[in-house]
Specification:
205 residues, 9 helices
Length: 205
Amino acid sequence: MLDTEFFLRWMAATAVAMDREADRLTELDAAIGDADHGSNMRRGFATVNDVLDKEAPDTPGALLTLAGRHLISTVGGASGPLYGTLLRRTGKSLGDAREVTREQLAEALGAGVAAVAQLGGAGTGDKTMLDALSPAVEVLGASFAEARDAALAGALETVPLRARKGRASYLGERSIGHQDPGAASAALLLEALAESAGPRGGGDA
């Protein structure tokens, strides 16, 4: 079972990953976006953890809802609303349970991904964060490791795609050959989730 401590570890691991990979995310974004994705992700998840340190909710759902609200209100560009919507909707879907199963998290995260798709008007294959999130959600019920691997593969598969949504879509054919920065950061989110569920974090139970 996954309790609030697990989700605190997930947000903390995500902040570490975003900080570590911020320069790479910015480099990816410089090619097809506004060159601010890395700094936005680094700042956004760092401040999420600051908020959670001061006001840690006592249920997984409340924790993710708070994290999502904070991202929406503090992070500029598209990333704040999109990641904020993902976490907030996932949190709301988890409800008031003090512990959830991996399968329940997969279902809730699926609702979060659907909300992101609705907000951005995008789908799989449009060269967005959904290309990493959607395949990850499909296999999360099986294992955290499979979800991580699916997200990483999905992010890499954005390289040959032409962007059809977001800032990169303005580039047309020139967006081909570049990895989508949102998909790359989404893969980091799933990597952090798998890391939090490692041998000392409850395994794949």
